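We modelled the chain as a single entity of 262 amino acids. Its sequence is:
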Amino acid sequence: MSLRVLIVDDDERERIVLRYVLEQIKDMHIVGEAVHGLEALLLCQEKKVDLMFLDITMPEMGGMETASKLKNLKDPPLFAFVTVKKDMAVEAFELGALDYIVKPIEQNRIEKTIERAKKQIGHKDILEESIREKVKERIDFLLEKYRGQEVYSTRLPVREKGKITLLNQDEIIYCESQAKKVYISTPQQGFLSNYTLNELEARLDNSIFFRAHQAFIVNLNFIREIINFGEGSYLLHLANSDKNIILSRSRAKLLREKMGIT
């Protein structure tokens, strides 16, 4: 498997060194770089990240705060600290860090961290694939009953856990891309569907649904607050949900236009 890695460090020289070390390792892809925690969280919602290498001391949002916020993501990446600080390892591992690497960086140590991450992710993927195949075999014939029927124009069939649930579109709070699945949230419960986010964007009523960014579609009727989050970004607070969605400056402008906010 190819591991998708994000580098987070405000020091450009340190990012260059870590990037060089990582580029020597096989089956590893650097998906991006961030200079502080807020930017890292935005990237994690826009891209699939398997492992994040985090500095501790950064402006805007440091490594420890960033690590504590990762658990709020639906599909949080693994993370390891790369830092000059020698006295925060205990706190780091309490947050769930995969490793705590003290600079200067040694390639051998980075390689061991990468291998540990691959093993942990591999075990999870095998279990999920087994469950997915068993469920698919049981419900494919049920889905065929609904193909081509008018119910698709106003209701969304979602297959999960051996059954098909028909969702009213106005009950959907948000849809979130999570690797090979899309999570659909309603006031009553959430569903993991086999739709892609692009398929849902084409299918849902675009008068009430908005593509917040690559990973989210939001029902405008459930947006309770739009809060300035600093650095040109915003947070969407949703009714009937504890999910807060980070919105970039460009998408916030489109949202204001769509909702008629001046």
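As a brief sanity check on the tokenised model: The longest strand covers residues 223-230. Residues 237 and 243 are 7 Å apart (CA to CA).
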